[in-house]
Amino acid sequence: MHRLPLLATAMLTGLAGQAGAGSPELGECAALDDDSARLVCYDKLAGRGPAAAAATADATGEADGNGDANYIPPRLYQEEANATNRFVIIPYERNYLLPVTYNSNINEEAWHIAHPGTGMDQAEVKFQISMKAMIWQDILGRDLDLWGAYTQTSWMQAYNTDASSPFRETDYMPELILSFANSWRVLGFRNTRVNVHLNHESNGQSEPLSRSWNRAILSGLFERRNFSLEASAWYRIPERSKDDDNPDIDDYMGNGQLQGLWKWPRYSLGFILRNNLQRDNMGAIQLDWTFPISQRFSGYIQYFNGYGESLIDYDESTNRIGIGVSLTDPF
Predict the structure, then answer these.
(1) Closest by CA position to 14, among listed 182, 176, 177
(2) Which of 43, 67, 88 is the last residue in one of the domains?
(3) Distance between CA 246 and CA 253 in Å, rounded?
(4) N- or C-end of the chain: fewer Cβ atoms within 10 A?
């Protein structure tokens, strides 16, 4: 399996000057549920701590109604507060466990290569672990940070005792993220982040089941009241043909995606959309619904239909629904 050497490429976008700083009100700080975010807000009121921004939203996710040019969402307050805390793991993508999922269109061809003579179950366990850590904060004095992130997604044939309940697939995705905090206005949304990613994804297997690709990704996070939208576009870094495990992966995964999330105090509804924008119209949709079950965990229902749920299934259409728990939201 081919692995590209790590590219030490600094990709910077033009930085626009920000308008005059505002200050959060005492009531806005008190409304924050998270202790770390509330402390950062109070520090800004007192003139202490980083001066990257000075206003915040209330606990329900209502955005900056006063149009403060230095607005920062509560999630970014929390990340700022915990960036140097060694006892805190900062989530990146959604962290979840789905003890029961059902896929009506399984990829038996790949399964029989690894497990000849045994059948593949349509029911699986699926889970994802995703985190990030600050590598370099305020690279140019303020607002530009370098993060390292890691996401791992696994599919386990837990109920397939005839095959000894193996992990069918695990995808590993480390990446470097250059993140610029800003407050640009776009079509009624506030663009709070622009990110440049260097991304590697692999399933860690040997031939003929090896799958991997490397991408440079440009993404932007746009927020309006209780809705967040991340638009991403990527370029696949070329490999030598003899080392390429999946030369046609772009035909199924496309060159970008949209990810959205509506958040209410107790519920959230999210989606992921991809399309190859070609005549054959290959793509995918994922729908996410969370609901309260305890103070720490949310109930979680995930539905996926299309191509590229996993690397081993990138060219196979999947139709899966699962239920379980979610620890964190993506935004």
Answers:
(1) 182
(2) 88
(3) 11
(4) N
In a domain, 10, yes or no: no
Nearest to 158 by CA among 96, 94, 98, 114: 98
130 and 173 share one domain: yes
Tell me how far apart the alpha carbons of residues 173 and 311 are, in angstroms, rounded to a whole number: 11
Q: Is 40 exposed, middle or buried (0-12, 13-18, 19+ CB in 10 A)?
A: buried
Q: How many CA atoms lie within 13 A of 3 on its CB side?
A: 12
- pLDDT for residue 51: 36
State how many domains the chain has.
2
My answer on whether 84 and 105 are in the same domain is no
Computed on alpha carbons and rounded to an integer, the radius of gyration of the chain in Å comes to: 21
Closest CA to 94 of 291, 310, 296, 325: 325
Active site residues: 200, 202
Q: What is the pLDDT of residue 75?
A: 78
Does residue 280 sit in the same domain as residue 300? yes
Residues 60 and 172 in one domain: no
The whole-angstrom separation of Cα 44 and Cα 21 is 11
- Residues with pLDDT less than 70, the chain: 1-28, 31, 33-37, 40-72
Residues 309, 320: contact at Cβ < 8 Å? yes
Q: How far apart are CA 158 and CA 166, in angstroms?
A: 7
Instruction: Please count the CA atoms within 13 angstroms of the CA of 314 that sit on its side-chain side.
Output: 22
In terms of residue numbers, what domain contains 233?
91-328
What is the three-class DSSP state of 296?
coil
Q: Could you give the CA distance from residue 109 to residue 118 in angstroms, rounded to a whole number?
A: 12
CATH number at 290 reads: 2.40.230.10
**What is residue 49's predicted lDDT score, i.e. its pLDDT?**
44
Q: What is the pLDDT of residues 127-158, one digit of tens each?
A: 999 999 999 999 987 789 999 999 999 999 99
Residue type, 307: Y
- Let me know whether 135 and 73 are in one domain: no
